[in-house]
Design a protein that fits this description.
With 845 residues, the chain is α/β, with parallel strands linked by helices. Helices cover 48% and strands 14% of the residues. The strands form five sheets. A six-stranded mixed sheet has the order 6-7-8-3-9-10, sandwiched between helices. α19 runs parallel beside α30, α20 packs across α30 and α22 packs antiparallel against α28.
Length: 845
Amino acid sequence: MSLVTTATTPTPTERSAVLRLDGIGKSYPGVRALDGVSLELLPGRVHAILGENGAGKSTLVGVAAGSVTPDEGTIGLGGQAHRSLQPGQARAQGLAIVYQTPALAPTLTVVDAVLTLLPADRKPARGRAIGWLTEHFATLGLAIDPQAVVGDLSQREAHLIEIAAALACEPEVLVLDEPTEALGAEETSWLFGKIAELQDRGTAIAYITHRIPEVMAIAQDLTVLRDGRVVGRGEVADFTADEIVTMIVGRSLETTFPEKPAEAGPPVLTVEGLSGAAFRDVSFEVGRGQVIGLAGVEGNGQRELLHALGGAGGAHGEVRVAGEAVSIRSHRSAAAAGIVLLPGDRLGTAMFGNLSIRENVVASALGDAMPGGWTRRAREYELTRSAIDEFAVKTATLESAVVSLSGGSQQKVLLARARLGDPRVLLVEDPTQGVDAGARVEIYACLRALAEAGVAVVVLSTDAVELEGLCDRVLVLSRGAIAADLHGTEITERAIVGGALLADHADHADHAAPAGVPEADTPQPVAPRRRWRGAALQPAALLALTVVVVLATAGRDSSFLEPLNISQLLLASSVLILVGLAQLVVVITGGIDLSVGSVVALSGVVVSFFAGSAGSLGLGIVLALAAGAAVGVVNGLLVTRLEVPAVIATLVSSVAVLGLAQVMRPQPGGAAGLDALNLLGATVASVPMLLVLGLIVTAAVAHVLQRTALGRGLRAVGADPVKANRMGVPVARTRVIAMALSGALGAGAGIALFAQTGIGDANSGQSLTLASVTVIVIAGVSIFGGSGSAISVAAAALLLQVITNALAFLSWSIAWQYWVQGIFVIVAAVLPMLARRSRTRRAAA
């Protein structure tokens, strides 16, 4: 056995390393994450990187992948030595990575996410990308729609997509960070087969896992980290599983699982004939002191069963707690019955990620923590400390955000919260997913202690060894039905896996498989769906509403349709379209631009100095667009370099730009010459050419957002900047580009407004900032970033301008313009919320 206690230089080998990390150091405030760590990956070999949570494993591979910048050390990749890398640079030099939490921006489609992850030389042409990805998925046996939105998929599917993207890169180095945590046994076997194929091609593979049997099965080399330092390395064949665990935790683990009771007590939870969309006729009991396990090949109904018991709805049958019939029709009714579900997606659905440990722990006992509704901080601290004391949560303070904790500590906080809530039934999904070996022992002891205290504990796990050691009874589901019911000594890893893979369904031949459960073990390719109908629905609805307003107004006053009015209306619409697009490109990145109105004014002022003749007008337009883009760049640098919040940065620049415009034109002036006005105001059949130009710009923006790498980057940054960075998107640069585009588009709106007024006025356009926000809200653009349609923005701008113009013909006060905008904003904000609630109810039914 080879064992070291400090970082050493890797042993030279006959084959040169394809990835070499030398003396890597990385510190965070109060934490030394990596301390002189060195690592070599050899071609055709799997190198396991092991350690407890917080040992530095993910930080180390983040350095290699470019998502973490080291403080010291060098990175050898692609035959070159680097002080640091960017994610895109690492991918271009042959490194692909699959993160523990998939680095896929949720608002992107699957095909856009995969294209973003691929290096430039591996990207197919955008026009054939869907066909290429469909074929790639089919080759891998994955049943995933390339045009599905990532946020609509499960974490398991997201993992498979990221793995598929990594395989498509044909990398020289593949980094896998806890790749099997969200996968079932069959998918894990599939992944191991792909790893073997990559080894045959000479790929070097870094494999991070907490599952020692996986290390023994597929890895040839290992490096063990503890507290940011290398404490062991060598060939896997030189170590036993127990020796590896001892290196990881720094102590010997004489027993991993707590002792099981000799016999169960009276029933605490009774389930009879429970059926739902993905499972049928499930019956079992959990006695006092018992822990029951749910197992099966992924997608066979076990997860749906657990969530149905937790109140997800859509299930029927009888559920009794301590002999009393209870309702599980909703999460609220299940909670009222004392049933607590701890979902496997801790940060996504189980925890309040940005809230503190204290706030997360006391969430289940607010009545006790805040008697009478009044905050008592001392009481909250007392309850939190008492709940987490036995779990040894590693944190400097109870006010630390729970998202900053390791996976094991997050799970301990969840269990502490559950215990504080005094549950009668505890349902736990993947309790040790992403949890290190030492923390697993503590979690197992906690679950057993809860069972002995009278809580009915039901555990769903993809780890058959875990179920064997922890559970008193294991139910193996296949195609939604119980295929094996294992008790006592019958519970073995072989029996659990065999019960799932060797289930005999002959007696169910006359029944169709439940919805959502695959008919075969091998996934079948999914034909891509056409999404254009849904994408076209919103602008079509806005245009239809515009027609209704036009007809209603014309019915009251036919002069509304006179050519002169229509021409002026459309010219004003071109201004709104451009300011709406300006706001869109910033909001889609998760920001906002409050300087749009001031840029419009500045642009009009700049053009007014060159509008005396058509000959000089071109120079004025170029200077106006350059000035707008410059303002955008300044805004972008304030946000990215100085980290000023976008709302403050653009508000400050708005005041400065307006001041500059007023200095340039203290009074309105610089009237346009006749030939310049004729050029700017040119029309064809009463349709202003500026509107045509605005629609061309709209089409161009739509193309950029949906069909280019820049557009994918803009949407990815808005959806999740951390994931976008890991996908290789240059986040800061993308935000600066968005601000610059916004400034240029705002300047274009200023030119259009000058064509409408014919004079330079520093006070014009100030109301357009509010109008731009109104337009994007009406267009259904997510104010949180990540999604939005340029076509919908143009349709919303036209609708808003038609309504504003119609008010004069309806003899309504101009004040109604602001009322109408406010009403539209409220309706546009509320409708999506109602639609989401409706979808949730339908899914539950």
